Amino acid sequence: MAAKDPTNYNDYIHEPNNQDLGNIPGDYGLPLIGHSISFLKDPFVWARAQNEKYGLLSRVNTFGSRGVIALGPDLAQQILVDSGRNFSSRMGFMDRVASFFPGSLIMEDFEHHKHQRRIFQSAFKFDALKHYTRGINNIYDRTLTSWEADVGSEIKFFGHIKDLLLEVAAEIFIGEKKDGGDFKKINRAFTNCVNGMMYIFPINLPGFIYYKGIKGRNFLQKYFGKLVAKKRNGDGLDMLSHLCREKDENGNFFTDEEVSNQMSFLLFAAHDTTTAAVTHTIYYLARNPEVKERLYQECKALGKDTLDYDDLNIMTYMQQVFNEVQRMRPSVPMVPRRTIREVEMAGHIIPAHTMVYNLPRFSHWMEEYWTEPTKFDPDRFSPERAEHKKHSFIFHPFGGGAHKCIGMHFSQMEYKCFMYKFMLKFDFESRHKKEPYMQSLPLPKPADNMPIMLIKR
Ligand code: HEM
Predict the structure, then answer these.
(1) Which one-letter DSSP state was computed for residue 239?
(2) Helix %, strand %, coil % for the chain, to 5?
(3) What's the Rg (C-alpha) of the chain?
(4) Mean pLDDT taken over the chain
(5) What residue owns the CA closest to ligand 1's atom 11?
(6) What pLDDT is attached to residue 351?
(7) pLDDT tens for residues 73-117?
(8) In the predicted model, is pLDDT for residue 184 greater than 80?
(9) Distance CA 383, CA 70 (A)
(10) What CATH number has the domain bearing residue 130?
């Protein structure tokens, strides 16, 4: 089946990015490179410097493209809630995501987006999540048992959790077991695809990472496409099966291409974000032994080996830890949009077709809202302190509005079930040679991949 023709989009999708921002406070940075280097080094530090010089809204120039950076909770709310339908997610992500994930949810706006989002309805319902929880716990049991062989030696935690969550992605999302014939191929294609998308030079020639990425993406697309008919007629409970069987508002199945597009992006949206969340948790727990101990005691108090779906809400301290990790190091460092028409922001007129960037971490570290924002302090999310409730967009790791993360509950289930089993089975100490550089791009993580020593409980 062929995909629906998306040409009834308004004209804005055919317009080039606006490059004339002379009336916005700020500068265009160095000749040729603009602000690219400071941005790549640390977007958050750079955003803070921009704010100090020019305020919450200023013009920027990165990788040959001009735009505005819009900081703080009020502007985040304006962009994400977007009650005036002024901001396009599709055009915000056009530069890179379009080549790898065309037609995916984040690449659609308004009615097109609403239509496509229906494809996920049953995949994220209560019963489906409950089923995934059981499957995920089985995978964790298997893998954490194999990690026992590493007790007493140093491991790079990031690599371990990345592999484990890829296994989850293959089995729970696609229904492909680790020992199944296609697991390695999917794994390789997916890894190449993500590396290619994050690669700074989009050179589509053999030998380049970008080229390998596009090949990986094409493999996944074909692979999912071949599975659709079988899964549509089957009774599988993996995510892909749900997507295949879902129907649109007219009672028709989504096309094979639509299913493949959404599935490829789903893997991407789910994997690196949760990997970053768990890796940063290990980083902060290793540096805050009292938090680690309190979390361990919360897990132990439940008195069982496995966290079931119905137990997730009982883990209140774990939820606070998750929130605090996302506040300190949000898994999605930046949200891009493009204006559809002229729009007023923070007292300035932003022309149509202008790229607009919001950085959640800027809001997450604002001294006006948070007590000692540089301190790792999960209790700031306790019911008594509830610092995140001071503004509805002061804490938004999962975004907001129409594009709010569809995997929000799934990711916290995946996170909590892992942390629960891991904390009960192992203690750990960090083994950084020196304080690591905390990278934000392409994926937020400690640059040394978080070396730890595993200790048996
Ligand atoms: C810690 C984990 C995660 C974080 C912090 C996170 C964060 C986000 C954010 C900020 C957005 C909105 C981006 C924007 O508006 O530009 C988003 C969208 C999305 N996320 Fe997540 N995510 C996580 C995990 C997941 C998981 C596990 C899945 C799938 C199982 C997922 C699927 C998606 C999808 C499909 C979208 C696009 C939604 C749309 O455009 O309507 N995410 N996520």
Answers:
(1) H
(2) 55, 10, 35
(3) 22
(4) 94
(5) 405
(6) 97
(7) 999 999 999 999 999 999 999 987 888 999 999 999 999 999 999
(8) yes
(9) 30
(10) 1.10.630.10
- How far does residue 148's CA lie from ligand 1's centre (Å)? 32
C-alpha to C-alpha distance for 9 and 331, rounded to whole angstroms: 31
Separation of CA 44 and ligand 1 centre (Å) = 20
The Cα-based distances of 432 to 230, 376, 449 in angstroms read 48, 18, 9
Q: What is the pLDDT of residue 31?
A: 86
At residue 208, what is the residue type?
A: F
The pLDDT of residue 96 is 77
Helix (H) or strand (E) holding 281: helix 256-287
CA 319 to CA 306: how far, in whole Å? 17
Residue 80 CA: nearest ligand 1 atom is 15
d(CA 438, CA 448): 9
Pocket test for ligand 1, best of 265, 273, 329 (most atoms within 8 A of CB): 273
Structure tokens at 426: 């192992």
Structural domain includes residue 3: no
Phi, psi of 189 (to 5 degrees): -60, -40
The structural domain count of the chain equals 1
5, pLDDT greater than 60? no
- Whether residue 150 is contained in a domain is answered as yes
Is there a domain that residue 369 lies in?
yes
Q: Tell me which amino acid residue 373 is.
A: P
Pocket of ligand 1 (CB under 6 A): 89, 105-106, 117, 266, 269-270, 273-274, 277, 331-332, 335, 397-399, 403, 405-407, 410-411
pLDDT of residue 179: 79
Residues 11-24: tens digit of each pLDDT: 899 999 999 999 99
**Separation of alpha carbons 263 and 228, rounded Å:** 11
| Chain centre to alpha carbon of residue 179 | 27
Q: What is the domain extent for residue 415?
A: 11-456
* Torsion angle of the four alpha carbons 241, 243, 245, 247, in this order, in degrees rounded to the nearest 10: 170
Whether residue 4 is contained in a domain is answered as no
For residue 92, the ligand 1 atom closest to its alpha carbon is 16
This model's pTM is above 0.85: yes
Average pLDDT over residues 298-303: 98
